[in-house]
Amino acid sequence: MQEELSILIQAQYPLIYLVTSEEERAERAIAAIAQTKANQRRVFLWTVTHGIIEYGQSRQITQHNTVSPEAAIQWVIQQKEPGIYIFKDLHPFIDAPATTRWLRDAIASFKDAQKAIILMSPVQIVPIELEKEVVVLDFLLPDMAELNQVLSQQLEQTKSRRTSTETREKLLRAALGLTKDEAEKVYRKAHVKVGRLTEAEVEIVLSEKKQLIRRNGILEYIEEDETIDSIGGLDELKRWLRQRSNAFTERAREYGLPQPKGMLILGVPGCGKSLIAKTTSRLWGLPLLRLDMGRVYDGSMVGRSEANLRNALKTAESISPAILFIDELDKSFAGSSGSADSDGGTSSRIFGSFLTWMQEKTSPVFVMATANRVERLPGEFLRKGRFDEIFFVDLPTPEERQQIFNIHLSKRRREIGRFDLEQLATVSDGFSGAEIEQAIIAAMYEAFAQDREFTQLDIIASIKSTLPLSRTMTEQVTALRDWARQRARPAAASVAEYQRMEF
Ligand code: ATP
Fold first, then answer.
1. What is the pLDDT of residue 375?
2. How far is the CA of 458 from the centre of ligand 1 (A)?
3. Ligand 1 center from residue 231 Cα (angstroms)
4. Residue 266 Cα, ligand 1 centroid: separation in angstroms?
5. CATH H-level, domain 252-391: superfamily
6. Of 26, 461, 481, 500, which residue is most buried, by most CB within 10 angstroms?
């Protein structure tokens, strides 16, 4: 990123928008670029509180009052020497007609002048008049090398003993996704708590990171104790996932395999879609981040929703290899097609940004998305090549239902031999995995209230008193099935099996 910025400055791009919340780190990077031979220039900073000051100085540069954005831009235009002018948080003012106009005037006046304005802000707001003139860059979070510097400094300051390369690498990896300030704080806290660089420190750094990620409210770190074996049936899908267990390793790259991009799991509600996503994280040994699309939308300020999405995706990338889990994709992007949205086009723009990111991402972030309603899903998601695979999770077959009963009874420490699984599978025709689990729980409550152990008959009674979703939503389920039969890969082992099923 720093290299890209340096090239833009050298190539005399007049207006650069740098999206970051790490002002100090970004300023330092720009100052370093300005000292290189190719870019010898002075650096100035503007803020609405202090007007223009020279980088490294504390007083306003001129007698003129440059606090107002227009006055500051005019001052920049008047300068004859080469310079880099960083405007911090200009975004609340950028929409004002005079500010936009002065910026355009500045750009026009910069021809061959070796001057560049850098707009630095945590949100990206570009008025339409400037869209063609500005280059937008994301200032990336610190990589392993930069974190290594932070850690070395911390070790020096605390006079810590040398540590093994593995522990050090784990500590660095654990802090990926944090800003430099956050990483410093987290390392310091881990040191205060533990005092030595050990696995215990790594744990602290990781749990601090989880909290910080949680605080931004859009991404959530999910931990799952269940393994993929706690899912009954879906053998084809499980085989596909197991086959890719080592897909994110160096060895896979050397072998010439492409990095998996993502998968879409379509299916009837309650059939284990979310459970698959969660257990895949354990199977692959990768962190699972849930992207809460509902929280991405923020109408408080133009551009805020887009900034939320960019930040969340940036964090996911910096933690990669990782799995990005988007539950109910159909709900997240409902209403994104068509330009006359009720939200002024925000959902269309968010949808567009997300698709572009999926298309262009090079970092190993595997997208696992689930959806119940295919007709609400924008067609672009279903196009070939967008996901590596689209799986359809249908209602369980009789054999799968037996497995699901087996799993949930064993989970509750019951002797399987006491139950006739075949009979249970027969009477629960049309039930989803979630409904089977609920039937067992209801039977347990019934028996518990009567102070006795539950039996086969209790489960059958609770099944009989339940109307499964497949009966209450027959049309919806049939429509999904019909669609998926042609276009998605069945998650169950036997295609013929689910095609035979009717209800
Ligand atoms: P929704 O679309 O309603 O979010 P879903 O398809 O994502 O549903 P899950 O939330 O994964 O379904 O399933 C709910 C619970 O039902 C699971 O946590 C699990 O306990 C149980 N369950 C569902 N399917 C299975 C299965 N195939 N094997 C074992 N348990 C299952």
1. 80
2. 22
3. 8
4. 13
5. P-loop containing nucleotide triphosphate hydrolases (3.40.50.300)
6. 26
Q: What is the DSSP letter of 56?
A: T
Q: Break the chain into its structural domains and give their ranges.
A: 2-138, 144-215, 252-391, 398-429+433-467
Cβ atoms of 387 and 262 within 8 Å: the answer is yes
Q: Whose CA is nearest to atom 27 of ligand 1?
A: 232
Distance 204 CA to ligand 1 centre (A): 32
What are the φ and ψ backbone dihedral angles of 331, each rounded to 5 degrees? -75, -35
Residue 115, beta-bridge partner list: 83
Hey, do 2-138 and 144-215 end up sharing a CATH topology, with the first three levels equal? no
Atom of ligand 1 nearest to the CA of 403: 28
Can you tell me which atom of ligand 1 is nearest the CA of 278?
11
Nearest CA to ligand 1 atom 1: 269
Residue 501, pLDDT > 60, answer: no
Mutation probe of ligand 1 site: the residue of 227, 399, 437, 438 with most atoms within 8 A of C-beta: 437
Fill in the DSSP letter of residue 370: E
* Residues 38-80: tens digit of each pLDDT: 778 899 999 999 899 998 887 766 666 889 999 999 999 998 8
Q: Per residue in 337-361, pLDDT tens?
A: 544 455 667 778 888 888 889 888 8
How far is ligand 1, taken at its centre, from the CA of residue 406, in Å? Answer: 15
Burial of 178 (0-12, 13-18, 19+ CB in 10 A): buried
Count Cβ atoms within 10 A of the Cβ of residue 68 and give its class: 0-12 exposed, 13-18 middle, 19 or more buried.
Answer: middle
Can you tell me which atom of ligand 1 is nearest the CA of 370? 7
**Average per-residue pLDDT in the chain?**
86
The pLDDT tens digits for 146-170 are 899 988 888 887 776 666 777 787 7
Tell me which residues have their CB closer than 6 angstroms to ligand 1: 231-234, 267, 269-275, 370, 372, 404, 407, 433-434, 437
Backbone φ and ψ of 308, nearest 5°: -60, -45
Do 19 and 141 contact (CB within 8 A), yes or no? no
